[in-house]
Automatic annotation (TrEMBL):
The keyword Acyltransferase applies. The lineage of its organism: Bacteria, Bacillati, Actinomycetota, Actinomycetes, Streptosporangiales. Pfam families: Acetyltransf_10. InterPro entries: Acyl_CoA_acyltransferase, Bact_Acetyltransf, GNAT_dom. This is GNAT family N-acetyltransferase. It comes from Nonomuraea composti. Keywords: Acyltransferase, Transferase. PROSITE patterns: GNAT. Residues 4-146 form the N-acetyltransferase domain. CDD domains: NAT_SF.
Amino acid sequence: MPFVDIRPRTPADLPACVEALAAVQAADRYPVNWPDDPGAWLTPAGMTAAWLAIEAGAVLGHVAITRDQEVSRLFVTPAARGRGVAARLLESARSSTPLPLKLEVSSEGRAAIGLYERLGWRRVASSRATWLNAAGEPALLHHYVSP
């Protein structure tokens, strides 16, 4: 099995990231609504860094952090799940800063919630999103803080 490398994202990586994101969106509806400019969506306002999981030249996953210490745009392609890729991406983000990180996850993301809780992330609040979930209702968001 080839080695999964975690490395910083470069501008040249965006087309491959968009391709990986399309596979995630087809499988999981993440993001809920496909953005008009997926490359820009993968580069949220205030982004300070982003990392990729790469294997044999293919993007398996992605994570970004913003200046307010928020984990953003975390995904792993369906074919790469169950291999610890998301945990490694989160660890790369966590090790980049001495401050705790935070993230939001929709209540529909049960697998993601399970991962965060297994990794020691702590739920600190819940709120309603301004966007709609698969049922057409404001999504219930759970807010987590890193260990």
